[in-house]
Amino acid sequence: MPSILPVGDPAPADGVLPAQAGSGAGGRRFCLYVHIPFCAVRCGYCDFNTYTATELGPGAAQDEYAGTVGGELDLAARVLEQSGVPSRPLSTVFFGGGTPTLLPAVDLARILDRARRLWQLEPGAEVTTEANPDSVTPESLQLLADAGFTRISFGMQSAVPHVLKVLDRTHNPARVPEAVRWARDAGLKVSLDLIYGTPGESLQDWEASLEAAIACGPDHVSAYALIVEDGTRLAAQIRRGQVPDIDDDDHAAKYQLADERLAAAGYGWYEVSNWARTEADRCRHNLAYWHGDDWWGAGPGAHSHVGGVRWWNVKHPVAYAGRLAAGESPAAGRETLDEATRQLEHVMLQTRIIDGLATAELGPQGRREVAGLIAEGLIDGAQAVRGRVRLTLQGRLLADAVVRRLLEP
């Protein structure tokens, strides 16, 4: 969740949504994202809305946060009812950050219980928390599982100490398999998040990280190319020549190696940056984003989307807590998407997943582009004959360029 908020229309203090939000809601899943903005150390590459304890003053204490975000969940239930959005049980719940597991497990359980009492959970609902490997214990993981969490996503990033140092990651790589084992013992599904393309990371380093991740036997692996965001410490280090800049060819080689090694180990890609052992192991919460379902994002800087209405909360935890204490919505701004924008985003998101996009959903020029994209090896020809646009491996490397051509007017 990037820290820079978009520009939009003012959001009303009561948070009530336009009538459009409830239209067709019965055909969409409803999900909850909870942002936990706390980190032990702020990583030099991170542009997310996160804070260390020393950066926060009165009104944003970690030991008060579960109650504060619970207040937004109460407000969410009122706003949705007042806006005419029918109540639906939660399909997925995702705690992200930051490092959610810096909060005591009992606090995360309190927040989940509040959500369950307000909306209930679908049978078999997916409930995930992100975690750093050094922020969990066997006891905390068991408490989360007992509270209803089903899945944990560990920020492994790399298995190579000098790469972790550039990223300012503090965990010992040897802790990762241990944390995975504890999660398994608690009955949780496990995902590992990796980052490739860190300055100074060789292809051999990346291969070692992949092999270490696979050896842990997770259900799911995410592999993201490092993006150097303006304003981060890493961007300043690159600008000063302290570390080398990232390289697109290096990213491509490492992505291809990831796909090769993960496929050989039995993981199938289902979104450009995500692989799972089976369809049941795919992250259903992220799929809800890519399919354009509804979600409420709770927490400072969190983004929400319901029925083509999108809004985002104030960034700072103190301002966030102050709005809620005053009985006001923490929303800083919002936008109502028109049909053209919703169609554009639908094409962008559906093209990134393995199911692909129905060719019939493209405009006339986009459909004419398909033949050329097949000839260039970017779109699967056999799938196109069946009426679906599905990216090849080469197409995944150039996904943004493919989407731009498919959206030609």
Automatic annotation (TrEMBL):
Keyword Glycoprotein carried by entry: no
CDD domains (UniProt xref): Radical_SAM
Source organism: Arthrobacter hankyongi
Keywords on record: 4Fe-4S, Chaperone, Cytoplasm, Heme, Iron, Iron-sulfur, Metal-binding, S-adenosyl-L-methionine
Domain of life: Bacteria
Any single Pfam family the record assigns to this protein: Radical_SAM
Domain (Radical SAM core): residue spans on this chain: 24-271
Stated role: Probably acts as a heme chaperone, transferring heme to an unknown acceptor. Binds one molecule of heme per monomer, possibly covalently. Binds 1 [4Fe-4S] cluster. The cluster is coordinated with 3 cysteines and an exchangeable S-adenosyl-L-methionine.
Cell location: Cytoplasm
Descriptive protein name: Heme chaperone HemW
Family stated for the protein in its record: Belongs to the anaerobic coproporphyrinogen-III oxidase family. HemW subfamily.
Lineage start: Bacteria, Bacillati, Actinomycetota, Actinomycetes, Micrococcales
Record's keyword annotation contains Heme: yes
